[in-house]
Amino acid sequence: MTHYSLRMIEDHRRQLRELLLADEDEAAALALCGRSRVHNPWTGEVDERFVVREVVAVPPEAYHERRPDGFTWSTAPFYSLLKRAESRDLAVAVFHSHPRGVLEFSMHDDVSDQALFSLAFNRLESRRPHLSVIMDRDGSFVGRVFGPELRPEIFSDVVVIGERWDFGAAAADSNTPELDRQRRAFGAETSGQLAKLKIGIVGLGGTGSAVAALVSRIGVRHLALIDPDRVEDTNLGRLHFATRFDANLRRLKVDVVGEGIAELGLPTNIVRLPHFDSHPEALAALRACDVVFGCTDDHLGREVLNRLAHFYYVPVIDLGLLIEPNDQGGYDTFDGRVTVVQPGYPCQTCRGLIKDEQMFLDSLRRDGELLVARQRAGYVPNNPDPNPVVVTFTTEVAAMAVNELFYRLNGFRGPDEHASERVRSFRYLKDSDTLPQGKSKPECKICGRRHYDGRGDMSPLLDLVL
Questions:
Q1: What would the pLDDT profile of 386-399 be if each residue is shown by its tens digit?
Q2: Which of 86, 88, 204, 234 could form a disulfide with 126 if both were Cys (CB 3.0 to 4.6 A apart)?
Q3: Handedness of CA 345, 348, 352, 356 (dihedral sign)
Q4: Residue 359 burial (C-beta neighbours within 10 Å; 0-12, 13-18, 19+)
Q5: Helix, strand and coil in the chain, % to nearest 5
Q6: Global model pTM greater than 0.70
Q7: Rounded CA gap, 22 and 73, in Å?
Q8: What distance in Å separates the CA atoms of residue 57 and residue 371, rounded to the nearest whole number?
Q9: What is the pLDDT of residues 361-376, one digit of tens each?
């Protein structure tokens, strides 16, 4: 079985509103879409997402007639876009409006879609599916997918990523007592959204294990835990759920945290992946997620997530804690950071959170034999000092990150309180939180030129040679 869905950013929805709902007559618009096709690790079904890359207007001269209940048009704009799509293995989405508010396909839509997509598969070599989507006056969507057999499959799972994250209809609220106090604060809708979401956590150290503990308690029901490391004695001061027994046996962090969550007795479906996020199995799980928490100080890992957010519109909440003691007994830096990574915001590289030389060192550390050889040659320090960490502060940063998820779902701070980055100084009580927005570099392929927005699957995956 295949589960179909559509993802776009808020700019795309705004463009579609302007093109489709300018008056009371039906209208059409087109879009180029990237593809994400993976096996959902929680259900085993195929997860196929269409990721809007570019919205294309239909010129007025292409219409033969427009009415409140239908339109006729030339297929030339559609066919022209199909040829562009085929050369890059992209899909074409055909949007049209139902300004009278009926969010379902009419008999007229059935006939016209069959004719339109027959043209696509009869004239071109591409076998990948395309889609037809209705938008009503309220801005809601329903779509259907057409493959070469021309048997349409309906879907209503449409995600829009902007200052708020719209994941469509929430799951039914099971009214479980453990979330009663949370419902009193945020309502059943937020709990239903959380129950629906598939969330990945990359890195299960001080921040990652705390995030895992928190999201499982707020009603998240689908978790992917990703970390190749094992528990050591030095982890016991900050790794939630870890015990001396785990450190003695050097157990995998994904097993320790996963079992700790399971023992809470909440209905959480947990996927454990003892890999770096660049591993094929981990990448497949991340592409099936709705939101990812980046809890690693590994620069190569950050780059993978940086690209994931732009290629697939899977927003990333990246966490960091920086403690820099000085020789005078004080601190040059004692800050926690939460950064949201998604199209339209400065990327991690432009913010200075990813550096090429550190990515190179991280890639060596993922290959033990090559690392030893480079260390012997003097290219890599033998024993770099670990960064200072204190569990109370890593846990506070984790809480900041999970609260950012709450805000993106329900807007509890108010409409003007969004920020792409929040830095908390633990040294100062007054004005402790700052909002450094960062700046995209015009030449940056990721966030300046927006070269990868919605690109989806390609070879190499994420256009990244690992």
A1: 788 999 999 999 99
A2: 86
A3: negative
A4: middle
A5: 35, 25, 40
A6: yes
A7: 17
A8: 52
A9: 777 777 655 554 544 5
